[in-house]
Structures are given as structure tokens and as C-alpha cells.
Specification:
Elements: H1 8-24, E1 29-34, E2 45-48, E3 51-62, E4 65-72, E5 83-88, E6 95-100, E7 113-115, H2 126-163
Parallel strand pairs: 1-7, 2-6
Antiparallel strand pairs: 1-4, 2-3, 3-4, 5-6
């Protein structure tokens, strides 16, 4: 906080330093190519190694692929072996882009188009995901019930033989 008694040139220099430093935190734009994006939308989060790093700024088509533009919160270096995927984060079909940084010493340049991994888990409908979960549970329960029935039948047979 500046005191009014602070000389004008000092206040001006402080203000100029703040403006210059705030201009140094830039934003990068990267584009990701996916075969499908499900319910991903403009404004959805981009997470790098578990930390929010930006948001989806634009989406469009290029042939049969979806191109998703992402604006980062700060300057970000993406390694050439980074894995980029769309993941579901909510029951209502919310999505986000997750980036797992690789170990490569080579980096993409801002503006590059990077191939994303189209995850089989990217579903367009939460009801579709729920349906698959129910089917999976149903199969597991049926298998357990069949095993239990076999065990019970074997015990009944054993009891019937010993009762004779």
C-alpha cells in the first residue's frame, strides 16, 4: 500500500512494475484432435497432472475428427509424449480434458495440434454409462447365484443320501 507521501516517481515505477509483471503471465493455446468428444463443451476444465491448467475455448470439426482448442491459464510446456484424454467427471455427463505429462525432452509449440486419446469410457450419455454398469453388476450377480445354487444342490443331495 502506498502512502501519499511516497514520491510520485516511486509510485509510478511501482505501478509500471506491476503492469509489466502481470503481462508476463501469458496464456498458450493448444489444439487437440479426437475421434469423438462426447459431451465435452466450451468452458470445460483442462487438468495437467491433477492441477487445473486451463479450459476448452473452442470446438470444431476437421473431416471426421473433432478439434478442441484449449487456452491455458499460464504459459505451459507440453512434452511430446504427453497423453491427452477426455474423462467423465460427473453423473450428469460432465467431461474434462486430462493431460498426463510425459518425460520427453521435446516439447510441442503453442498452437500445435496434438492427437488425443479417444477413450472408450467417453460416453455421450450418463444413462448409457449407468446401463453398462447395471449390465456388469447383473452378470456378476447371476454368476454368483448360479455358483450358490450348485453348492446348495450338492448339499441337498448329500443330505438326502445320508438320510437314507
Amino acid at each position: 500500500m502506498h502512502n501519499l507521501m511516497t514520491p510520485y516517481p516511486t509510485r509510478l515505477a511501482s505501478l509500471l512494475a506491476i503492469l509489466i509483471l502481470s503481462g508476463c503471465s501469458g496464456h498458450d493455446v493448444y489444439r487437440f484432435r479426437f475421434s469423438e468428444v462426447g459431451t465435452l463443451a466450451v468452458g470445460d476444465a483442462v487438468v495437467l497432472s491433477g492441477v487445473k491448467a486451463g479450459k476448452v475455448s473452442e470446438m470444431g470439426l476437421a473431416g471426421s475428427s473433432a478439434i478442441v482448442s484449449v487456452q491455458t491459464d499460464n504459459v505451459m510446456q507440453l512434452r511430446k509424449d504427453a497423453v491427452v484424454r477426455i474423462v467423465g467427471v460427473g453423473l450428469m455427463g460432465e467431461k474434462r480434458i486430462e493431460i498426463e505429462q510425459g518425460k520427453s525432452g521435446q516439447f510441442y509449440a503453442p498452437g500445435d495440434t496434438i492427437q488425443g486419446v479417444s477413450d472408450a469410457a467417453v460416453k455421450s450419455s450418463p444413462l448409457q454409462v449407468l446401463g453398462e454398469l447395471v449390465d456388469s453388476l447383473k452378470s456378476g450377480i447371476q454368476a454368483k447365484l448360479q455358483d450358490s445354487i450348485k453348492i446348495l444342490n450338492a448339499r441337498i443331495d448329500s443330505l438326502m443320501r445320508s438320510a437314507r
